[in-house]
Amino acid sequence: MKKTIAYCGLNCEKCDAYIATMNDDDELRKKTAKLWSKLNQTEILPEMINCEGCRFDGMKTPFCDSICQIRQCALSKSVETCADCEKMKCCEKLSAITSNDPEALNDLQG
């Protein structure tokens, strides 16, 4: 499985935080911070938009680093991704992602 597939199956290469980090794109950081602030009804600053992928060591957004329940669960279980967890098919946390993004489930099962 590609290392840029997150624990939940989302593809980090498609995430604006990852793209902004890899390209050192401050304009994309500003645009993403503004959008994510609106969507999450909290202030997100452009300097928070730095992420090298949730399964890599290195920079992560505050959400990916410590708030994401899926990442915290996977780390506590020492699984490579949710695909390695016997509770994957009945996990409510994961289904919140995969129900909105079927490609994430395909990447986990692929």
Structural features, described:
With 110 residues, the protein is mostly helical. It has one domain (12-104). Helices cover 48% and strands 0% of the residues. It contains six helices and no strands. The chain has helices at residues 16-23, 26-40, 62-67, 69-77, 92-98, 102-109. Helix 1 (16-23) runs antiparallel to helix 2. The longest helix has 15 residues, at 26-40.
Which class best fits the helix and strand makeup? Answer: mainly alpha
| Helical content class | 40-55%
Largest sheet: none
Share of β-strand residues:
under 5%
Tally the beta strands: 0
Shape: globular
Secondary structure topology:
Layout: H1 16-23, H2 26-40, H3 62-67, H4 69-77, H5 92-98, H6 102-109
